[in-house]
Each structure stands twice: as C-alpha cells, then as structure tokens.
Amino acid sequence: MDNMLHDIDKILRKPEEAVRVLLSNTDEAGTAPIMASIIQAGFLERQDPYIKNLLNLFRVNILKDLKKKAKILVPQGAFLLGVMDETNTLEEGEIFVQIWDSSSTGTIRQIITKECVVFRNPCFHPGDVRVVQAVDRPNLHHLVNVVVFSSKGYRDIPSMCSGGDLDGDDYSVYWDPMLIPPRKNYPPMDYTAAKPRLVEDVKIRDIQRFFVNYINNDNLGQIANAHLATADMSDKGAMDGRCILLAQLHSEAVDFPKSGKPAILSEDLIVRKFPDFMQKKDKESYQSKKVLGHIYRSVDKSDYKDYMSMLTEEAVYDTRLHVPGMEYYIGEARELRSDYNRDLLGLMNQSGVQTEAEIVSGYIIKWLKKGKSKTRYEQHDSTMKAVKSFKSLWRKEFEKEFLEESKNTVDMAKRASIEAKAAAWYYVTYHPEERQRDYSEQGGFLSFPWVIYDYICDIAKKNTHRAQDTSLSLPIPETVIEEEHAKHMLAKKAMENRGDDDKEPIVEIVDENDEDTDYESDFSEDNEAVIYSGNTGMFTFNNSELRRAVQELNISNDLENTRSSPQNNGHVRPTNNNTNQPVIQADASNEDLMKILLS
C-alpha cells in the first residue's frame, strides 16, 4: 500500500513514472492507456491542463477506492479469464500463466514460473484461496492473458475457488511473495447446490408462493456483512467457526433462486456492531484494529473530497500543433466544438456527473444524482457506454471526409489534410484568442480535440524538435479564417455534387465565344474555379477562373439586400436588372468573391 501511495504521488511530477503506473493499471473505460499515449507525446511536460486533470482524477479515484474498498494495486498480479488445459500437460495443482508485460510497450510476453495465489470473488471460505505452482509448458505458449487450469486431480481448482467454473469466470492470480499465505490450502468447501423441489404441473399459485418466498428470504447482503464484521472481531479471522457457517449460508443464499432452499440466518449469527471501515452510519460502530481498519484510516477524506479544486481550465497552446493549412478548417471547427460542448454538457446533466474530466475519463468521484440503475456499478456502466458512443460519433464526424471511396477506412494519402483538420480542432479549443470568444457555461471544456487523440499525439511527436517560435502562438487573422472557411464550404458543396448527374456543378463556366446560351461543365481543370485532386483529397482554387465564374454565374436569389446592406464595401455594384447578374469590380478580394459565389 505504501509503495502504491508513493507511486501515485509522483505521477504529476515525473512523466515516465506516470506512464509506468498507467500502463500497469487497466480500467473498463480504457482511459489509462490513452493517458499514457498523451504523456508519451510530451503534453504533461508542457503542463497540458487536460492530461493534468485526468491524472489528478486517476490519483483521487485510487485514494477513494483505497479508503472505501481497500483496493490496492498489485504489480505482481493479474485478473484473468479461466480456461482448461486441453493439451493435458499440466499436473494436479499446476497452472499456466502468460501475460503481456503491461509496464512495457505491450510486445513482451512474460511467463510466470512462481508459487501463486489463485482466488475468485466473492471469497468467504478459507479454502477459497488456493496456493498453486505456475509452470512453463511449450504446448500452451499460444495462450496469452488467461489462467490455464489443470484437468487432472481429484477435484479441479476452479470449483475450489468459491464454486467457480470455466464458462466465463475470471480469477485473480498473485505471484508476489509477500501475499503468499503462511498456511497453504485450507480444505475447500463443498459447493454442491441443494436439489430443487420439482413441481410437475406449475400453477400460478406456485409462482406467487415462490415470489413471496424469495422476497422474504433475500438476505445475501446481510450474510455477507455479518461475515465481514465477524471476521474482523474474531482473533481467528475467516477461520472462526461462525465465519465458516456464514460462508456456507452465503453459498446457499446464492443458489436459493435455483434450488428454492432458503439460507436461514440464526439469531446468534446476526451482527449488530460493525467496524468503522464498513461505514454503517446508522449502526453502532467501533474502531477496527485489523489491516482493513488501518487502511481505512490511512486515507483522509479531504484527499479526495476537494478534488474539484485540483482541476484547471487554464489552457496553454502547444505550438507543435501549428500545422500548415489548418486555417482552412478553423471556421468549421468552431461550429463543431460548440455543438460538441453542448452535447457533452447535456450528457453530464443526464448522467449526474459534475465535471468534464470525470465523464470523459470514467473516474467519477461523486454522482449528483442516482440514476435508474439499481447500483452505482450499473449506473457507471451505462454512463460509460453512452460516453463511448458519444466519442465514437464525434470521431466519425472528424474522419468522414477522409474515408476511402467504397471503404470505411481513412485514406492515409490525405495525411496532410487530416493533420490540418486535427490541428484546427486543437487550435479552437486551446488558443487563448479562441477561448475568449466563448463565454458559455461549457466554454472551458478541453476534451473536444482529444476524441482524435492519436492524430494529435502523432503531430506533436513529429514536431517535438521544432524550435520554439513565438510567432506560431499568435492568433490567426480573422480575415484569413473567414476566407479559408468560405473556400472550405465551397469545396464541401463541390464534393457533395461530385458524381451526381442529377445535380448541376456548383460552379459553371461559359465560353464567351459559344453561341449556345446553355451552361455546360466538363470539370476540366483548365477552366474550373474549384479543382479537386483525387490523390491528395484537397481542393485548390483557380483565382482568375473564380473571378470569371462569379461574373458569369446566374444568381437566382435576390441581391437587393447586398445592394442596400451597410456591410456592402463598394466592391459589389448594384445588380444589372436585365440579366440579374452582379457587376464585380476588378479589385474585389477573394473573400468578396467567395461571399457572392456562396450566396
């Protein structure tokens, strides 16, 4: 425990230590390996607020679990799916364990050849904890990240571990010498379930009777609490005779819905006084002198209760993410970030989560409300499924314009455009100028670009040795952003119309010498205002043809507003009433041309 607390205190100061701790600890949301990737890209060294917030929550979550659940991280251990040795090479009392070395890059396999402890939750009887020998067997080298049990012996090991089997049960395996119990292999309990009472002709009254009987005898939680409190009070611990009886009763209570035999908790087994670590506020309590009590009191509530004060919104723009061409995507990125933040805030309100960092990481310290789920675990599970779907949706939004035709994969030939768009998403989230633009409740959110964390990290790594250039931290002129945004919108319309015979091209060019008054376009690169390259996935703009296109284009909508608007800067003269075409001055800027063309 002391080693664990020492490690998590260093994760904010030492990036290499943070990566080691994160890679050795998995979580259901898959946040830890993502955090490790972000740190390896150098963002923690540059004091990125997003990764600092996630690391703070990671630390607080560990402290909270330590106090409330006595959850201690064990480096020399694994939580593995149980399978049977089909090669018949393991002897009785032997197991085979081969795991990925999680503290490395994930390419090194480690075969355990030590004395190990194996158990399965819930664990009540002393015989549920088995000490076995892990061995190396070449015939089993194809099995990774599972615990392989021997098929030999008078009784299989899984059945000794709380009546487990191999139909999907998970087992904890420890090979830390400090965790090997002094007394090995207490005789296991018999977990054979009682035979159910058979009724040949089931009537509705039988169903009613069973339902009422189940409600009256649903005492599984009461038995578990009595076992824990009794083991703490007794000098013999779980080997106390009352604990052995309670372990048997717990097994019967688990099987009760199938067997119909209730577990009767006698008066002498009922506990009315509980140790402090069980946190029974409505019951009489005492200070536990055993290890769980010491662990509970070693963590002060203030270490995690004031977690919100540790979170920051002070963004620092990393100039490594300044990429050529990013201006093209900034206008769209602003709109998308606004939509993303609004949707994320709605998800937070719906789930009862207070902070952005909590909901995107899964390290939820405090719930504002109880959901429809029966337990906090179920509530957390349903919330993280919603978050996973949310992130996937926004990643697809980013990648959709880069997908290969007829395939659902990203075309990496468009890498330059992908990086430019990713950099734009980062810019609108982190640049001080952009953050000052958004005064909404969710304006301080930072997670928008991290739904594509891999692209962001790749750009940062590629530019790690770039010399610090203060000019790259300057805000991009608004005129440039508006002009590039207009080009982007025009290109998107052109892309939407590509290959659709039912639609006219977005820009049509008329040959002045052609007597035919009908518009035609063969998408020749010699006379297109917008030129699309299939190799790069980029649109380029032919400025001279763009000017001609605007002059020749039939404007169907009424331009009276343009003529009378105070924003008319003189580059656009009144519409010709006979042809309904705008008359363009020769010195009109590309921005003005774009606005007319898009109208």
UniProtKB/TrEMBL annotation:
One of its GO terms (biological process) is siRNA processing. One of its GO terms (molecular function) is RNA-directed RNA polymerase activity. Residues 317-470 form the RDRP C-terminal head domain. It catalyses: RNA(n) + a ribonucleoside 5'-triphosphate = RNA(n+1) + diphosphate. The keyword Lipid metabolism does not apply. Residues 1-299 form the RDRP core domain. Residues 559-583 are annotated as: Disordered. Keywords: Nucleotidyltransferase, RNA-binding, RNA-directed RNA polymerase, RNA-mediated gene silencing, Transferase. Its EC number is 2.7.7.48. PANTHER family: RNA-DEPENDENT RNA POLYMERASE, RNA-DIRECTED RNA POLYMERASE. Belongs to the RdRP family. This is RNA-dependent RNA polymerase.
